[in-house]
Amino acid sequence: MESLTFDLASSPVTELNTYLHKRAAAEGVRKVTVNNPDGAHNIAVGLDTDVEVTIKGHAGYYAGGMNKTATVVIEGSAGTGVAENMMSGKVHVKGFASNGAGASAHGGLLVIDGDAGLRCAISLKGGDIVVGGSVGSFSAFMAQAGRFVICGDAGDALGDSLYEAVIYVKGAVKSLGADARYEDMTDADIAAVTGLLADAGMAGKHDARDFRRIASARSLYHWNADANQEY
Asked: What does the DSSP 8-state code read for residue 177?
């Protein structure tokens, strides 16, 4: 048996997650379909096995959180914290993602076809995030490592207190946060964006040369007593 279907209208999320954690690999199941998610929270969290989970509808909070190795596809929108603390693998949201998408992701790829809410990529630690639409304010706040591609617009304070993560944005930016600045796109940047767009399935929709690079000015790395709290 290589595939299995769970119906959350008749089975609890805990039963689904227990199966994915403890039995899927042992039984050789590589594909799991989740019907009638109806916005349930914590679907497919903490996975550490090579399995593809397809959620047929909208997911609630923390779908695909702490993901490792697995591929999680949400054929709808996702609530707060989708793919938070992801280590590897892929999470693909085909609709809208709410606040804190990809928070603290250490690795892997998060793809959001639509828009993302506030603080997308907050405290990013090494993962890659590609958003096909726009993102809300304070996205990439304190992002430490990784790459963040925004194909639409961005709200206020993009990249506030940015460390070594790099942001690529195509649309308008309402404002940059403290210590974030625009930098010239290099050939390496164009290659990176081209590759990420291809990985996200958006290669034919955007040209990497239309994006701008945002990175840290590094003025916040050390405390400056004479700055009078102004940066």
From this structure: -
CA trace torsion 36, 20, 86, 116 (10° rounding): -10
User: Is residue 65 within 8 Å of 81, Cβ to Cβ?
Assistant: yes
| Tokens matching residue 229 | 């709290």
Residue 219 binned pLDDT confidence (cut-offs 50, 70, 90): confident
Q: Could you tell me the two tokens for 84?
A: 């938070």
pTM: 0.95
Residues forming beta bridges with residue 203, ordered by sequence position = none
Report the alpha-carbon distance of residue 40 to residue 92 in Å, rounded.
17
Residue 181: pLDDT over 60: yes
Q: What is the DSSP string of 198-222?
A: HHTT-TTT--GGG-EEEEE--TTSS
Q: Where are the beta strands (DSSP E) in the chain?
A: 3-7, 31-35, 52-55, 71-74, 90-93, 109-112, 125-131, 145-150, 166-169, 180-183, 212-216
The secondary structure of 128-159 as a DSSP string is EEEESS-B-TTTTTT--EEEEEESS-B-TTBT
pLDDT at 220: 81
Instruction: Report how far residue 140's alpha carbon sits from residue 161's, in angstroms, rounded to the nearest whole number.
Output: 9
| Residue whose pair of structure tokens reads 């969290």 in the numeric block | 45
- Encoded tokens for 209: 């040369």
